[in-house]
Amino acid sequence: MVQPLENILVLDFSTLLPGPMATLMLAEAGAEVIKFERPVTGEDARLTEPKIDGESIGFAVLNQGKRSVAIDLKSESAKAVLRPLLEKADVIVEQFRPGVMDRLGLGYDAVREINPGIIYCSITGYGQTGPKAAVAGHDLNYVGDAGILSLSRGPDDHPTMPFGLVADIGGGTYPAVVNILLALMARQKSGQGVHLDIAMSEGAFAFAYWAHAEGVVSGRNIESGGSRLTGGLARYRLYTAADGRQIAVGALEEKFWQAFCNVIGQPPELRDDWSDPEACSAEVGRRLGSKPSTHWEPLLAAADCCCTVVKTPAEASVDPNFAARGVFDRKLNIAGKEVQSLPLPIAPEFRSSRKTVGRAASLGESNEDYGAEQPDTQ
């Protein structure tokens, strides 16, 4: 079938993670993505470890299937290269601090004069306006400012780091893709483009919707690890088995909780984790810690009570369920070696049918195609 974003041209001025993952999703759905990078070194992600024969795995995973143009955006020659692309582009994704693209002559107002239908997506930490618009930050800062880092921060002497890049991906990449697609639909009706102001710190709020209801609307104080979804109840916690493997107990509903308690032999007087959560969780921890995860895993699976052994990334990549669904079937070529491609939340019906997605372009590989000077690699 025809891919939904076929014939959509995306100009990608973003770096590192949020923007590149967004344009990767668009490319997977059929868009043509041209990635613009600084000459000589390219974007910083090309330099990151680990590498295969000198090629960054992290960069390749996020930039497969895109074209690369190495260009100095401050140069006069850049205008001649970019003008025809700006005239026909559908989407621009940029990730500079507010005002940078304006100073380069590539801000929304300037591009809109050339192309009124342009969908211009700016991804920043704190948005295009406001007192913190120009403040530097990374994912850790954004989730901290959004209040969600405080919900499960661990002990003071060994704070717990977030397991995933919630603000970068959940607050940046996903809102960017969703709003770009909405803007494309709106343009079909109006013919007009739009400037999308994506703030990663704001996008992070949705990931703790319950904290908004409890800590903001209701005005209750939420202690670290004290809420029902951050370890405040015995039925929704991580426990360590005798072999050191963790068991994720997610038995929120009463029927699952009772089924779990039956498996581990939790005494009736210690099953009420609402009235005395600490005593209840201590006994659960003692019982799960008395035997290895290999003992508990089949019993918990048979009970179907939302309790599982925590897998490593390597174990997850060969999980039979994911294998049956073809999650890791698509392959990526890095320096001539075929590896698993990053699973993306794009329905198979909207992606190309080929199993090998391709590779990340070498720096400036497409310069000649767009009339740009060949990049200096020295």
From TrEMBL:
Entry-linked InterPro entries: CoA-transferase_III, CoA-Trfase_fam_III, CoA-Trfase_III_dom3_sf, CoA-Trfase_III_dom_1_sf
Entry GO MF terms: transferase activity
UniProt region (Disordered), positions on chain: 353-378
The keyword rRNA processing belongs to this UniProt entry's keyword annotation: no
Keywords: Transferase
Pfam families listed in its UniProt record: CoA_transf_3 (PF02515)
Keyword Transferase attributed: yes
Protein name as annotated: CoA transferase
